[in-house]
Amino acid sequence: MDLFSRSARSRVSFTLPDDNSDESSISEEDFVRQEEGLAPLERSNASFGASSHLRMSRRNLDVDEDILHRAAADAGLGSMGTVYVEVWTLNKEGTQLVRPEGGYWMDPIFHNKETECGCSGLLTCSACRVFDPEHPTFLPADPVAPGVGLAGVLWSESATVEDTAVAGGILRDTTKRKVVWRDIRAMANNPHLPYDERLKAIADSVDHGLLKEIGNEQYLLCAADLCGAAWSLREPRRAAIKSRKALRDTAIHRARLQIITLIHFGVRFDNPVQNSDQEPSNHNNNNGKKVSIAEKEASLGKVVKKQLAQASNAVTMVATKCKGTDNRPPPPFSNEQAVFSFFGSFVLLTLPAGIGHSLVTSYGSDYLLLMPPFGAFICLQFGLTQAPAAQPRSCLLGQLHSVSIALIISVIPLLPVWFKQVLGTSLAIGAMTRCGITHPPAGASAFLFSSGTYGMTHFVLLLAGNVLAIIVGSIINNTSEKRQYPTYIAMGCNPKDAYEYLKRD
């Protein structure tokens, strides 16, 4: 069954053997023996006596690409609404995400040369730019840094969500796991993400309506586990082959020594008694050999070299990351959107500033409305509208967590004010990131409240002002056809899911 045709268009040739073909009769054990340079095991079945041509073709096959490509193809063929599958992995240096050879699959129905652009009318030309290497403006899957492009963004976000790896996912009940869908169009147009032309082209061509069916989601979860397992299998498989080679070499070496010893004793000793007397002596001398100081020093030197190599690799990784990448910065807003952001921010800041001034004038400084966090929040609302930090959940829960921690820190005795501010802000940031409610203005609030200058009255006014900003900001932002705020309004999670998550941690 041919999944891909041999052509320059696909640059991939992948053939699954038929059930009655000679290729399917070669076992994995025979293939590994061929990789090691050994002859296949003899069997009575005539199909295992394959021709030398077949053995050579199998020997040239890259098993890693084959396994990974099979997993990706199975993920695409078995699901609904899937046209293209990609597998991305973090490189050994930990600096870039790369798409390994064989780590992609595309449904051949959706691309051929019947039309001028090659998409047969089933895909848009934007998709052809991503999938067709012969397209004049082809966008290759170049390595990306974490946080850049579709793969980089999903990789960065996966570090903050529940682990769904093989050990933590496929062995659990799959019905309890859910797919977290992201709107690719929103990601492509998000100004706080680095601009990626490949992500933009994908966003112009997708429709994930069929993908959200419950059964299809569960299949995609398990298929993702299978792709991850196929990639993770590479190093253990190579290590296993290396170990088998080492055992083979050791056995051959021992056999040679035994043969040489037998020849030596057979030539020099005619008396079998003398031979039997010396064998135990040699055996005891070999087993009783003590490790010399030089050997111990050599062993210690190897350990030190290994530690130095690891430290050098860590320094190299940090230095490489600090250089940044060649990605372009996000595009600026248009003049229309910049003017819209100005007027929206002006109107929204006028309300809390005016209310705060009236409260201080009427009731004194005890009713001061802290404006610095508001300025940062409104900047998020109109400058990074789709960012998670600008959403109501992050705003309200982030402020609640941060200020609560700061108020507790502010009453601890014997600590200088500057240290309370450092400790309170740091604890607040850690709590927000752990709970997935990161909100930068809440970090500023924690710094202010940790000083002990502000109390519960200021806290209540701050929360009330944030609620007002969310309501008014939603109305203003949604008057623009190019904006959507908020992108989600959920304030929490299922208590049962939260309990299971905390219990597992």
From TrEMBL:
Keywords tagged on the record: Membrane, Transmembrane, Transmembrane helix
Protein name: HPP family
InterPro entries: HPP, TM_HPP
A Pfam match: TM_HPP
Keyword Transmembrane helix assigned: yes
Stretches assigned to the HPP transmembrane region domain: 332-486
Organism domain of life: Eukaryota
UniProt signal peptide: none
Source organism of the structure: Seminavis robusta
Transmembrane segments: 338-355, 367-384, 396-419, 456-476
Location of the region described as Disordered in the Swiss-Prot/TrEMBL record: 1-26
